[in-house]
Amino acid sequence: VKASGKDNILTYQDIEDGSHYLQALEMERDLRYALRHDEFELYYQPIVSPKPFQVRGVEALIRWNHPQKGFVSPGIFIPVAEQLGLISDVGRWVLVRAITEIQDYAERFDLFLSVNVSKRQILDGSFLEALEETLATTSFPPHRLHVEITESEVGGNVYELQQFIQALKTIGVKISLDDFGVGTSSLSYLQSLRLDIIKIDQNFVKGIPENKFDRALLEGLYQTFHTLGLDIVTEGVERPEQLAFVLEYSGSLIQGYHYSKPIPMEQLHHYLRKTVITQI
Ligand code: C2E
Ligand code: MG
Ligand code: MG
Ligand code: MG
C-alpha cells in the first residue's frame, strides 16, 4: 500500500489492525464536532428516599444524539473520549451544563446533583480546574454537588486520588463511589479514601429477591456500609419486590427504573412538580 495521502495511510492501518482504527478516527472526528455543535444533552435520573417518598437528588447522565448514527450510548463513547484525551472537554461541558440546568431546582426542591468523573479528569487536574471555575461563576452550593468516582478506576494512583478527594473535601463537595462491586478494591482501601456515599452496583440487585445468595450478599453490604457510616444508594432497582427488600434491610436511597429512567430536563421538571404535589 502506498501511503501518499491521508486516506492511504488509513487503508494501510486498516490492513494492519482491522477496522478498529478507522472507527476510532471517525469517532474522534465526530466527538470533536459534537462538542462544538451542541450534539450532547444531559438526562437526569432521580435518586429518591422511598419512605416517606422524596426526591433527594439527580444524577446527570450524558447523551449523544449523533446526526447520522442516532443515539450513541455513553457506555460506548465515554471510554473512547477518555482514550482520545477528549474527556476533559466533555467533562467540563457536563459540569457546567448540569449546574446551570439544575441550580434553581436544587434550591427549590432541596436536591443534590451527582456528576460522573473519569480517572483522566482527576489525574490531569482538569476536573478540579473546571469545578473551581464553575463554582466561582455560579451560586451553586458545593455541598449539593456529589462527584461520582468509579470503583474499577480508583485502583492505582492512590496518592493522586487521595489528593483529589482532599481537594473536594476542602471545597465542600461530596464524594460518591460509583458501581461498587464491579472493581476489585478491598474494603479497607476504599475506607481509607474517606468517601461520603457508596453506590451499590445494579448487578447486586438483579437476583433480588429470588436468589438466596444475592439476598445474603446485599444484606451484608448494607450492614457493612452502615457500620462504616456511609450513605448508600442502591442502583438498578426495577421491580416492587426489589424495592421491598431494600426497604426492609436498609435506609438506602434508591436509583432505578422503578421510580424513573434518566429523563430530559423538561420531563424532570414535570416529575419534580408532580411528586411534590402528590407525594406518591
Ligand atoms: P453510571 O454512572 O453507573 O450510571 C448509571 C447507569 O445505569 C445509567 O446508564 C442508567 O441509565 C442505568 N440505570 C439506572 N437505573 C437502572 C435500572 O433500574 N436498570 C437498568 N438496567 N439500568 C439502570 P447510562 O446513562 O447508559 O450511563 C452508562 C455509564 O456511562 C454511566 O454509568 C457512567 O459510567 C457513564 N457516564 C454517563 N454520563 C457520564 C458523564 O457525564 N461523564 C462520565 N465520565 N461518564 C458518564
Ligand atoms: Mg454514576
Ligand atoms: Mg453507577
Ligand atoms: Mg455504571
UniProtKB/TrEMBL annotation:
Keywords: Cell membrane, Membrane, Transmembrane, Transmembrane helix. Residues 24-276 form the EAL domain. The keyword Acyltransferase does not apply. Coiled coil: none annotated. It is found in: Cell membrane. This is EAL domain-containing protein. It comes from Exiguobacterium aestuarii. The chain holds residues 482 to 761 of 761 of the full protein.
